[in-house]
């Protein structure tokens, strides 16, 4: 039988990593819109208005955070596993959510409005910075609700949750 204290420790650190990763994603995206040199690749992303595929998004997220994802292993195995898996889970979820919002925004059932899709469609350089979740836009006052379901969106063919670019 597993030690419940160890399991609880892992679950707590998984949750902290998942939520913290969403906060980091929000602020990194927001900083990419600041008048700094940080966002040239991001400006190209806005010009093309497409994701690079779920797998490539995932690799980018993990590549940029891998060292941080390993840090809690110095504290304990349980904390390290929870932290690492929480970060990995958010990277996978965010990669999928980002691509989904570019190709099939109707399927983002966990948000009232697909914020990243709206961010691109309406050229919102000061609003709706969330990629996977809209929590932080609400917290920091950057959420801007718009009536996004236009005739164009309603006339799109119905696609499934997996019908998007994976590579």
Automatic annotation (TrEMBL):
UniProt keyword Transmembrane helix, yes or no: yes
UniProt entry tagged with the keyword Membrane: yes
Domain Fatty acid hydroxylase residue range list: 15-142
Pfam families the UniProt entry points to: FA_hydroxylase
TM helices/strands, residue ranges: 7-28, 66-93
InterPro entries: Fatty_acid_hydroxylase
Keyword list, A-Z: Membrane, Transmembrane, Transmembrane helix
Superkingdom, natural source: Bacteria
Name of the protein in question: Sterol desaturase family protein
Source species of the chain: Stenomitos frigidus AS-A4
């Amino acid at each position: 039988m597993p030690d419940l204290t160890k399991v609880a420790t892992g679950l707590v650190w998984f949750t902290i990593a998942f939520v913290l990763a969403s906060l980091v994603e929000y602020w990194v995206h927001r900083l990419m819109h600041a008048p700094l040199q940080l966002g040239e690749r991001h400006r190209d992303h806005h010009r093309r208005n497409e994701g690079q595929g779920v797998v490539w998004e995932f690799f980018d997220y993990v590549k940029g955070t891998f060292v941080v994802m390993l840090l809690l292993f110095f504290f304990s195995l349980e904390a390290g596993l929870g932290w690492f898996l929480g970060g990995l889970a958010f990277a996978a979820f965010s990669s999928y959510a980002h691509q989904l919002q570019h190709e099939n925004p109707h399927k983002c059932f966990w948000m009232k409005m697909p914020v990243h899709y709206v961010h691109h469609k309406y050229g919102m350089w000061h609003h709706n910075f969330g990629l996977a979740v809209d929590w932080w836009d609400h917290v920091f006052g950057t959420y801007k609700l718009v009536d996004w379901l236009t005739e164009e969106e309603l006339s799109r063919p119905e696609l499934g949750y997996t019908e998007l670019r994976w590579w």
